[in-house]
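PROTEIN DESIGN WORKSHEET
SECTION A - STRUCTURE
LENGTH: 339
TOKENS:
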């Protein structure tokens, strides 16, 4: 299902949570909404779901009005599923009964019991839970509980699947495995997925497009590679993978670092950086070389395949991701060049 969000604004008393947000979401698209706490991403998700009403603007799905300042289609009349941050499972109900529960609503009264059973079995198989259908939530791991909430959300075959930081309660290893589960569900159901997260890795790994939000506004919309390689603002550059921001002077398409006699070319660098006399360099784009910015290693963190260094150059600290083939000690003097 395609979604058109036009001039959406939401105020809570005197606080503006969303400010003139407009987005066109394609049918079957996987959209990640990424940003820090308080940026408005969950408010946007709740507006799409119909849990709150907009102050201004409209939400239209497949040419059907979902929300405006004067109208709000009830949640039960929207063809969507919701996966919350908490698992929200009842301790006395079996896994199968959890998944059957949404089908007991009036919306599915036309389905026979046999059809409901078929849908529940299909959802169990899609989430790898078919052998656990008679267990209670207390007998499941964290990852299995999250799969139950996913199965419950997709059993009604929604056109839109809303996810509000569904993996935040899981440990790091489970989060990585659950990413694949969610991507498989997307491919299986062909639902339009809108996924809220503050985790850059999740957004980059899973989404077709990413929406970066800050203070109720959209900073940038683009594919994962566009967001990572071509940030349009300093906020996007720093929020996604802690980009280094160099200060200097732009002359035509050449950037001269302050106090240095060499330059970097401006290919694929947005106008924002050129107007502000800055230049973004990702940590992995820096390399230790025989020339370049001269500095000292003041911190390092071993990460297995690579080592994360902090290098002090004059009064600035830069982050460098380097191979573990050569390891440099604290206090070591280095030159930083750009790949």
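SECTION B - SEQUENCE
RESIDUE ASSIGNMENT:
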């Amino acid at each position: 299902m395609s979604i058109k969000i036009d001039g959406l604004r939401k105020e809570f008393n005197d606080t503006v949570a969303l400010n003139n947000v407009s987005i066109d979401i394609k049918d079957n698209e996987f959209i990640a909404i990424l940003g820090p706490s308080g940026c408005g991403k969950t408010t946007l998700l709740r507006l799409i779901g119909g849990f709150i009403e907009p102050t201004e603007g409209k939400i239209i799905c497949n040419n059907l009005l979902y929300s405006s300042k004067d109208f709000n289609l009830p949640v039960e009349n929207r063809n969507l599923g919701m996966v919350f941050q908490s698992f929200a499972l009842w301790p006395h109900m079996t896994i199968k009964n959890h998944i059957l529960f949404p089908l007991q609503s009036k919306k599915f009264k036309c389905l026979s019991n046999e059809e409901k059973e078929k849908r529940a079995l299909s959802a169990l198989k899609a989430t790898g839970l078919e052998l656990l259908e008679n267990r209670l939530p207390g007998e499941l791991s964290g990852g299995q509980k999250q799969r139950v909430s996913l199965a419950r959300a997709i059993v009604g075959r929604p056109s839109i699947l809303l996810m509000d930081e569904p993996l935040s309660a899981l440990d790091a290893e489970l989060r990585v495995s659950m990413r694949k589960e969610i991507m498989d569900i997307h491919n299986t159901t062909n639902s339009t997925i809108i996924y809220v997260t503050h985790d850059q890795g999740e957004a980059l790994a899973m989404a077709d497009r990413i929406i970066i939000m800050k203070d109720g506004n959209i900073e940038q919309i683009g594919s994962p590679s566009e967001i990572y390689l071509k940030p349009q603002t300093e906020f996007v550059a720093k929020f996604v993978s802690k980009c280094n921001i160099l200060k200097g002077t732009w002359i035509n398409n050449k950037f001269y670092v302050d106090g240095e006699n060499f330059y970097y070319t401006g290919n694929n660098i947005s106008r924002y950086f050129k107007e502000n006399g800055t230049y973004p360099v990702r940590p992995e784009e820096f390399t230790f070389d025989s020339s370049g910015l001269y500095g000292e290693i003041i911190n390092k963190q071993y990460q297995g395949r690579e080592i994360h260094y902090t290098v002090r150059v004059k009064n600035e600290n830069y982050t460098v991701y380097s191979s573990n083939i050569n390891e440099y000690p604290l206090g070591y003097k280095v030159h930083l060049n750009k790949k």
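SECTION C - NOTES
The radius of gyration is 24 Å.
The longest helix spans residues 172-189.
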